[in-house]
Design brief:
- The chain is of the alpha/beta class and 227 residues long.
- It is 35% helix and 22% strand.
- It has seven helices and eleven strands.
- The strands form two sheets. It has a seven-stranded mixed β-sheet with strand order 1-2-3-6-7-9-11, with helices on both faces. A four-stranded antiparallel β-sheet has the order 4-5-8-10.
- Strand 2 (26-33) and strand 3 form a beta hairpin.
- Helix 3 (77-101) crosses helix 4 (113-128).
- It starts with 5 loop residues before the first helix and ends in a 6-residue tail after the last helix.
């Protein structure tokens, strides 16, 4: 599975995972590298009518309603519903793995619909497992998830997340920013005019553009932008 470019390797891992279906249209996979004490948490793209219903249910809601008022933040309602339905199961599985191997690193990865869930998972797992120092998240072709301004504590937990947009991927421009939605850790690949907005979102387009990064990877792997 390893490839010369780290981002391409992560994306291919996401595409080739064997997913577990959960209520509310969620699909996730856990892969464990025992030797490296490294867990990969992966989320699948839209694969059915329920996923698309969740994608379009984008009105903002509180992501952490039980938190003190100053710590509350807001997100896409449909993606929250999917993550909320699976998070207890996912966290229980990670807790059990951690008992067995003492996890050193967790990498959350998602594509499209799954990229949005990956952001929510990264924030939650960073909060739930503070003893695991190396936690990171990647969202390839992600819709916008966050609404409004993040509290500092949440922003800090999301600082390890990177949203990878292939210009001019139409999905990454939804929901519209004019409605208050925003990206976290946005980075771009590709060039304007190479793909139509729909084709730019395909796995083939992302695979091709990520593969080309081996020639310019320092621009993307070390440069991070917020929102």
């Amino acid at each position: 599975m390893e490839n010369s470019d780290p981002l391409l390797s992560l994306f291919l891992r996401c595409l080739n995972a064997h997913y577990i279906h959960t209520p509310k249209g969620g699909d996730y996979a856990l892969e464990v590298d025992n030797a490296a004490e490294h867990v990969y948490l992966l989320f699948e793209w839209s694969d059915g009518r329920e996923d698309w219903h969740n994608n379009l249910t984008f009105f903002a809601r509180t992501a952490n309603p039980d938190a003190p008022p100053k710590e509350r933040w807001y997100c896409h309602r449909g993606f929250w519903k999917v993550w909320n339905a699976m998070k207890k199961q996912v966290i229980q599985e990670i807790t059990e793995i951690d008992r067995q191997i003492r996890i050193r690193k967790i990498t959350c990865i998602g594509y499209s619909h799954g990229a949005a869930i990956s952001l929510l998972a990264t924030e939650e797992i960073t909060r739930c497992f503070p003893h695991i120092v190396h936690i990171e998240g990647y969202g390839f072709g992600s819709p916008r998830v966050v609404w409004g301004t993040l509290p500092k504590s949440v922003n800090d937990r999301c600082s390890c997340f990177r949203t990878i947009r292939n210009v001019p991927d139409v999905i990454t421009h939804l929901p519209p920013a004019i409605l208050g939605f925003r990206h976290v850790g946005l980075e771009t690949i590709g060039t304007k005019g190479k793909y139509s907005p729909i084709k730019a979102h395909t796995p083939q387009a992302y695979t091709k553009e990520l593969g080309s990064l081996r020639h310019t990877q320092s621009r993307f792997i070390y440069g991070k932008k917020k929102y």
